[in-house]
Design a protein that fits this description.
Layout lengths: L1 H14 L8 H7 L2 H17 L3 H19 L19 E7 L7 H9 L5 E5 L3 H8 L11 E5 L9 E5 L3 E2 L15 E4 L7 E6 L7 H21 L4 E6 L7 H8 L3 E2 L25 E6 L1 E9 L8 E8 L1
Parallel strand pairs: 1-2, 7-8
Antiparallel strand pairs: 1-12, 2-4, 3-4, 5-6, 6-7, 8-10, 9-10, 11-12
């Protein structure tokens, strides 16, 4: 009986992620990689207790293969962000998918501004919020005087924006590729530090195979553009609509970016405010960077959004 459990588990948890870049259903399966990995550990414990040594050896190999895509490129642990103060020398960045249908957008944006981050990246902002900011009324009394918008492209990308306490400028001419179509980045200039490219990424959710392929292409195009154009540190606010072991995360990792969420911090970011236990929520939102490393990481609930906001204190390498 144990063999009938071991063989499928070894194949699924150890090998499925290798083919997930080409097969839609395998990539969906790999979204549960953490649970597949722990399943092999449970079976390993059973095999050891029953002294099935050959099976145990197979499960040890399977466990290594299962945990590898989850562990690779990850920081093991980080302290919580201290929301009461901001240490010297860090760039505090917040990223949140506010939800375009959010009727509490004013409360949400005020909560994001309340933690005094240097940069706020908003993914999928409501049209009412966009109009309020463009009319120079909503942010008039705030410290976020610099705002850049990503223009929505129907069927491709939603509207987004970057808010900053520090100047945001368009990239220099050689980086114009970063401004083409759905590829959006802006340059952050903090006095006393090197320029940093700030961007946002929101590929399609994989509701069917076509949307899955479209979203994958969006991620690859961002990485291709960065490899050809950028020469300074990069910060991305990302809602990947996929998990840490899935294909889209691997594309970002091979492109030099690293996610901020520490491996040993349990719980995902979606869906927030639901009865789903924290351990079963999906980690699809994060802040990815290159040329910086995270010093602290946290998440918090904002009004009306079904995503938790992510906040990271980053230090230039």
């Amino acid at each position: 009986m144990l063999w009938w459990l071991v063989l499928p588990s070894a194949i699924v948890s150890g090998v499925a992620w290798m083919g997930s870049s080409r097969v839609y259903y395998l990539d969906l399966l790999v979204s549960q990689q953490i649970w597949l990995a722990w399943w092999t550990v449970l079976l390993l414990a059973i095999a050891l207790c029953t002294r099935r040594w050959r099976i145990a050896v197979l499960l040890i190999v399977s466990s290594v293969l299962a945990f590898y895509p989850i562990v690779y490129g990850r920081t093991m642990r980080l302290p919580e962000v201290d929301f009461t103060t901001k240490p010297e020398g860090v760039i505090r960045v917040v990223s949140c998918n506010i939800n375009p249908e959010n009727g509490s957008w004013e409360q949400a944006i005020n909560e994001l501004m309340s933690i005094q981050a240097d940069v706020i990246i908003v993914i999928e902002l409501p049209a009412e919020l966009s109009r309020a900011i463009r009319n120079h009324s909503f942010l008039k009394e705030s410290t976020y005087e610099y705002v850049k918008f990503r223009v929505p492209i129907p069927g491709r990308v939603s509207q987004g924006m970057v808010m900053s306490k520090h100047p945001l400028v368009s990239p220099p001419p050689k980086q114009d590729i970063l401004q083409s179509d759905h590829l959006f980045m802006t340059e952050l200039n903090i006095p006393g530090t090197d320029p940093v490219l700030i961007g946002l990424m929101h590929p399609h959710s994989p509701r069917n195979a076509r949307r899955w392929r479209d979203g994958n292409r969006t991620v690859r195009e961002h990485i291709d553009a960065l490899e050809r154009a950028h020469e300074c540190p990069v910060i991305f606010g990302v809602d990947l609509n996929s998990g840490p072991a899935q294909y889209r995360s691997r594309v970002l990792l091979t492109g030099g970016l690293r996610m901020s969420k520490p491996l040993l911090r349990m719980g995902g970011t979606y869906p927030s405010g639901s009865p789903v236990p924290a351990a079963f929520k999906l980690q699809i939102d994060d802040i990815w960077s290159e040329g910086l490393h995270p010093a602290a990481w946290g998440k918090f609930k904002v009004g009306g959004s079904d995503h938790l906001a992510v906040v990271t204190d980053l230090v230039l390498d």
